[in-house]
Write a structure and sequence with these properties.
Oligomer: single chain
Number of helices: 10
Largest sheet: 7 strands, mixed
CATH architecture of the largest domain: 3-Layer(aba) Sandwich
Amino acid sequence: MTRRSATSRPTSIHLFCGAGGDSDGFRRAGFDVVLGANHWSRAVETHAANFPEAEHLCVDLDHYDMRRLPKARVLVGSPICTEGSPADGISRPKPPPTHGQLDLLEEGPIQDAAWERTRATAYDILRAAEVHNFDAVVCENVPRFATAWPLFSWWLHAWDILGFRHQIISVTAAHIGADNNAHAPQWRDRIFIVFTRRELRAPNLDVRPPAWCTGCEDNVLAVQSWRINRKTRRPHTIGKYRQQYDFRCPNTTCRNRIVEPYVRPAASAINWTDPGTRIGDRDTAGMRPLAAATLRKIRLGLDKHRVPTMVTVNHADQGDGRAFPAHTAPLPTRTVRIGDGIAVPPLLVPTGGSWNTGPATVTVPMRTRTTRESEALLTPGPFITEHRGGGSTTRAINDPLASITAGGNHHGLVIPYRKGAPTITGTPLHTIATRESAGLVLGTDHAPDVIEVEDCYFRMLSAREHLRAQRFTDDYTVLGHGGEQTKQAGNAVPANVAQWIASALLEVL
């Protein structure tokens, strides 16, 4: 088997490449992408716009002669996962006895015929590996690909016959990142099956996100801890965060207590200059009224998230300038400056066509992106506040911003609330914690006694916000109209996870 010199960049082929999330991650890690293949012409056009040096195929890979693929050291492919996704609408029968096979989740196999596309595309990746001497192959899919596809164990055995070892990594995109690899602000539970030749050293793919341990009072590298399968009485080996596994501190001094890894909030992906349209003004703006189910979810979110937060924003406070819960903590020492405000968050509200049912704040990562617009941004009446030298002024959200100076960010989005408003918002509050010159602030004299749904602002998330949730950078070109871009975002592999895996492979190739 011929190997390239240690000084050349390794190469990768990407089947079912979509918009190129995995390609972007591999390129950032140090690979040269030599081919992108997909059956949808728009996705191929997007991939070609970002990887003009690579070859491109717009073909149905089920009928493609894999001997025609160019040479490369790594093959990357994501078998179609619609049939295993909770968004497909397929009913999930209860699992039969496992008979000593691969540990299942609390879900079982569905009829084999329902896996037609997933099975065919999984075979396509296997066919490519059968005729090419790849050093490594990476497959991405939903956990049900491994736990509910009846032929998954047989498929794994075929790779063993071809001379590969395999590692199955369960991970959510929100937990993966590094100094040179920003986290994705999205909860996206996936498995990555990494096959490497037995003569190579196995890559280190342990999921060890940084977290704060309250017992040790220190930052630690958390360890995946698998919950016990209630049916088999053994630990799960594949699954989703907070369902089949948690993270624990590696230290025994705190008895390996459960910890929460650091994550990047959904707020970091949102364009805060566009609050949307006031719900009460949709008729006059020529927009359709919101569906009753959407309004019900909005009310649920306003009722559920009721934690107003006090924030010190002047430049002369004697404390650390951090936010604290308004309903549980005393006020700091009063001064002659008006330096305190109350911060409340926008919400992400599921709309039609989503299996999600509950609203969520923007302080946590987004839920898994799908191929359609299924979530909207709700902000309770925002306006802009500016903080300079300890003072502040406010202006309407529709007004232009004041001049931005090199001294830092002086703007914060302010959202009126009622007592017991939604929980704190993410990005502005993070800014407050590090820079006292900006914040998500509302003086108490501006707060209405009651917030009405009609006074909230509402809009669907944009395609670019979906793409940011997949950790595409804003300079990444995605072609097509908004719906096509959203579809490409929903189908993509999070670029940060692909970069993490590619970096681990780079160490052993």
